Amino acid sequence: MKKTLILLVMALAALPFAADAKGFADYHTETLKLPCTTCHKTPDTMPTTETCTGCHPTDKLVESTKNVKPTNPHTSPHYGAKLDCVNCHVGHEPSENYCAQCHSFDFKVP
Amino acid sequence: MTSARMNRRAALGLAGGTALALASSGALARGVKAPQAWDRTVDVLVVGSGFAGLAAAIEARTEGADVLCIEKMSIVGGNSILSGGGLASPGNDLQVAAGIKDSPELLLADMLKSGGGLANVECAKVVAYGALDAYRWAKDFLGVKFDRLGYQGGHSVARSACYMNGNGANMVGPMAKKAKELGVALETRTRLVNLVTDEKGAVVGAELVKGYVFPKEDSGTRMFVRARKGVVVAGGGFSQNVKLRMLHDPRLGPQLESTNQPGATGDAMMAAQRIGAADVQMDWIQLGPWTSPDEKGFGVCPKFVESSVGYGLMVDPKTGKRFVNETGNRKVRSDAIIATGHPAVILVSEENAGHVPPSTIKAGMENGSIRRFANLDELAKFYGINAESLKASVTRWNEAVAAKKDPDFNAKIFKDTKENKGVFYACRLWPRVHYCMGGLAINPKAEVINTDLNVIPGLYAAGEVAGGVHGMVRLGTVSIADCVVFGRVAGRNAAQRKI
Predict the structure, then answer these.
(1) Residues near B220 by beta carbon (within 8 Å), at least 6 away in sequence
(2) Is B228 a known active-site residue?
(3) Which one, A38, A56, B103, B132, has the greatest CB density within 10 A?
(4) pLDDT band at A33 (very low <50, low <70, confident <90, very high)
(5) Which part of chain B has CATH 3.90.700.10?
(6) Rounded to a whole number, what is the distance in Å from the CA of B482 to chain A's nearest CA?
(7) Is a pLDDT exceeding 80 seen at residue B212?
(8) From the candidates B296, B366, B370, B432, which should be mutated to test the interface with A, based on the most A CB atoms within 10 A?
(9) Which residues of chain B have a CB within 8 Å of the CB of A83?
(10) What is the CATH number of domain B3-285+434-496?
(11) How far is the C-alpha of B25 from the C-alpha of B40, rounded, in Å?
């Protein structure tokens, strides 16, 4: 299981993402073929940050994006690594770049 | 001119106030009545988790109250965590070390002068006389680290104790940590929808949404929280609410962005207004005159600008001429730039740019908002300014520098200002909506006043959500002092309230 998680993180970090991706959920269900229950424990349950970090541990995410220019998107002087995932990675809607509200960081958010 | 303008502003404020008073009078109030059963009961409910909210929560908890502090966004801190300044605190140890003489009386005088005579003197006194204690509280009780003494425009002396690296997170962090250690329940994604009042009009609780996902109005689930002793509203300003700010100042439409975090929409303030809270000075909305259209949000240009005024000059690119006192307060400068209808250009020679932090110039040149030019011809060409007009303006400014006297706009010229020549740095400036001086009417105990000019029992407000403390212009770093001082006042008074 641990090996699977690490491989998943590596795969996610390495894959190029198209700018017109429909949303993060589509990637999980259509490309990775994961069931809905991976994020939604029951049909009525909204995922929480803990749902995401269960498969994508924060420290490994921060490490995997340490070379992104101009700065690491997963940690910042304002919020450390504590910002909720859905501020950028919105499940069933196009992703957002939360930092772009104040900074000219041209992150390509998957 | 100033007098006529002030009269017009006062008239607008009065008219606005009258209209709002009618809308929120008793018969039309949309207060929510208490539910059959509360989902939860606490002593004090704090709305908002910036400096004011966290200060209120910690103080109420220290006074023995059971405290719930809610935040509608997914992370605590509001605009406070993004702020890049410090705490104005006369008599602080950094001043003592630098041999600077200061006093609460001098801070008060600076506040009232800058406020144009519109500040609520009794509330301004609370901030001026409470600022040093707030600094000591932050430093000694919370463990906040301050690393530098800063000067801010409009102050008589350098008195701003800057939190480490000028990063608001270095103050919010210790505050959130202390709150949790003390046992404050700090809950994010929890939004205030309505205040609950009893038959006498006292605030007895609130209707909240748990699991809120900003900005989706229909997200989350409703719940009712009883607040035995009081509710402290500390939800910040409304700089990000275009409709609301245009209501009070029609110039502030969508063509002007804001420096604020996205949640600064005034929700909590409007909830209080719905139960009859009065508001004051809603049309005094401060623009930051130092932001650039070539970068987003607050950016790095403000640091460049505030280190260049009094050394370099600012011109209207259409005429090549100076048009305002570059060292004037934020309102004077913003109004002048907006009146031209297009971005201004500020320029300073490399020699005179020694006061700008090197990291600021580096960052600005990387993001393209700050430019370096070998000479004035290059600069003029890049920004589309008539070269001869620009050179004439620089020559005239250099004459003022030599004489240490600006005959055109009476701008401040520093002792170490030198002739501007050779290599220049420059950037374009277009103001952004930054701070709402207006807000809920409060008294020196942070109690909210209603439109009958009586105290609303159980309702307190602190920080940017409150109005009257600053008058027409807020001085830099006084807002953080205001948040901490009045946050603590609100928290203490709510916790001590006799029912």
Answers:
(1) B189, B191, B209, B210, B211, B212, B213
(2) no
(3) B132
(4) confident
(5) 290-430
(6) 21
(7) yes
(8) B296
(9) 74-75
(10) 3.50.50.60
(11) 30
